Amino acid sequence: MKKWKAAFFSAFVLFLFTTFAHSQQAEIRILHVNDFHGFAEPYKPLGSDELLGGIPYLAAKANQLRKEKPSLLLSAGDMIQGSNWANLFEGESVMEWMNEMRLNAMVLGNHEFDFGQEVLKKRISESRFSILGANVEGLDAVKPYVIKELNGIKVALIGVVTEDVPLSTHPRNVAGLRFRGPIETAERYIRELEKRADVIVVLSHIGFPADRVLAEKVKGIDVIVGGHSHTKIAKPVTVGGTLIVQAWEHAKGLGVLDLLIKEGKRIGFEGRLEEIRPEKGKEEKATLALMKKYIDRVDAILSVRIGEAEVDLDGENVRRRETNLGDFIADIIRDASGADVTLINGGGIRTSIKKGEVRVKDVYSVLPFDNYIVVIKLTGKQIKESLEHGVSAVEEGEGRFPQVSGLVFKYSPSGEKGSRIKEISVAGRPIDDGREYTVATNDFMAVGGDGYRAFGEAIKSSRDFSVVGGMMKGEKVVYSDSGRWLRDVVVEYIKERKRIAPKREGRIIEIQG
Amino acid sequence: MKVYVNQNSVEVLPGMTVKHALMSAGLFEEREASRKAYDEWGNELGVDGALSEGMRIYVKKSKV
Q1: Interface residue B16 vs chain A (CB under 8 A)
Q2: Which CA distances in Å does B12 have to A65, A174, A448, B20?
Q3: H or E element: which one contains A274?
Q4: In the predicted model, is pLDDT for residue A468 greater than 60?
Q5: What is the pLDDT of residues A141-171, one digit of tens each?
Q6: Region for A314 from its dihedrals, namely left if φ exceeds 0, alpha if ψ lies in -120 to 50, beta otherwise
Q7: Which of A294, A240, A251, A295 has its CA nearest to residue A273?
Q8: Do A46 and B11 touch (CB under 8 A)?
Q9: pLDDT by residue (tens digit) across A255-267?
């Protein structure tokens, strides 16, 4: 009898406590970042004269805001890849910073896969916070969701990443993985969690337009903390009953969302985006030290000797004629992509490398732009038209002048524009106007950079992008590796070969008349 | 993937960004001259932001 009484009393106390706790209102704060991409230092964005960002200032702001209310610090993905500060350490620097910041949870972004699965698993093993990916199958290291308790409020965090990851990174990086639809995934986990949590937050790396659709289609999401589209949302956007926030990019913004919760329901909110500006004396000291530590390491890595050039590599004349450096880079692109032909713009090659030691920074000076390799099918006729365009302003030394691999062509520099190309051969055979060839180029030219239109026309006619047998396929597009900069492909190539002595091989032959 | 820049359609590849859409529309340099890119709801976009099918981007003088 005594046992029954004790059990009844315990249950009654629990009932009273639960009832009391749920009748109280509580306030929690969500701080959030997204799409950092390793931009640790303040910088002037294009079109702005003002310095923005800087992790020492973001950390200081986050710490200040955390002291005011019980808070969670979240990331909506794409943190570990993008700039030298991140890439040269395969994201280790960023993971150290996020640990230092006492992040609570993060969803994987598409660019988290860019260094391959082994590196990603290592980064995850280093993290002291939850890394989420509810719609990622085949990667045991990530969790679908986590529940955090804050000020008596249970907050469920579900992570979803764009299902297009396989279309935006090298196929080997996602081999064996499956990315389910974010909507069906969110539906599934919300049903599972709605009785276990007071607040449901979807940490989303699917982009603001898709976040809006998610909010419309899936009921029960209190907040979507977004990323991927780098959207600067100044105030929370309400779609249905869901709040959507996103904090721009590159540590230039810190999102702040305060939620007032009563009886497991959101009864109020206030949100804003804090723009991060460097102010002397306002930096967080430990983060400043961490930032500088890796800047010093970046400098050291850029100075590392990767090989030896046995000849001068000519980057000065790439806008007027074939050079050995143009041939060298075009060959590396063809080798890396497996294309029939490479066609790149000479203007993308910015300087020369002197005979002697080659350092990482020499390659980075030659290829300073964040370009990546794209392979598109062009007909022989389109290749000819592209080459005509390429040589059409050789007298002005414009950047469109081509550097090539896998083909040889003759042209007349003094001929009428549009009729200068006289002869083209691919793999030793005359080009066939009607046949399709795989042509490697860079992303700049693929979207019509330097006036090259053929690639854009091919993209326009290409449909049904999908991953087949581990490789992205479109009707006309066979390769696109947006997660790996061309300069890093060249660095790796030189590291493997050690000694390089490229010759000018006679691929672009000037003739008179 | 088709997106719209100032009402004109451009075609880009999956994985490409706002920057590529602006280049394809011939508006990237114009953006550098104190213009910025916005989505159809008026939110500013970073140039490395991901694109989605049918997305509408507007390049205009910055709000601030």
Answers
A1: yes
A2: 40, 22, 10, 7
A3: strand A265-275
A4: no
A5: 999 999 999 999 999 999 999 999 988 788 8
A6: beta
A7: A251
A8: no
A9: 999 999 998 899 9
Residues in contact with A210: Cβ distance below 8 Å, sequence separation at least 6, in sequence order: A162, A182, A204, A228, B52
The two structure tokens encoding residue A492: 């790796």
SS3 category, B40: coil
* B10's tokens: 């451009």
With CA atoms as reference, the chain B residue closest to A252 would be B46
Are residues B13 and A459, on separate chains, in Cβ contact within 8 Å?
yes
Number of Cβ atoms within 10 Å of the Cβ of A185: 25
> Which among A228, A459, A460 has the least Cβ separation from residue B50?
A228
Q: A6 vs chain B: nearest CA distance in angstroms?
A: 59
CB atoms B48 and A230 under 8 Å? yes
CB atoms within 10 A of CB A6: 10
Q: Is B41 on the interface with A (CB under 8 A)?
A: yes
Q: How confident is the model at residue A469 (pLDDT cuts 50, 70, 90)?
A: very low
CB contact under 8 Å between A229 and B45, yes or no, is yes
Give which of A110, A217, A194, A101 is closest to A145, Cα–Cα: A194
- Number of inter-chain CB pairs under 8 A, A vs B: 104
- DSSP annotation of A507: -
**Which pLDDT value is given to residue A16?**
44
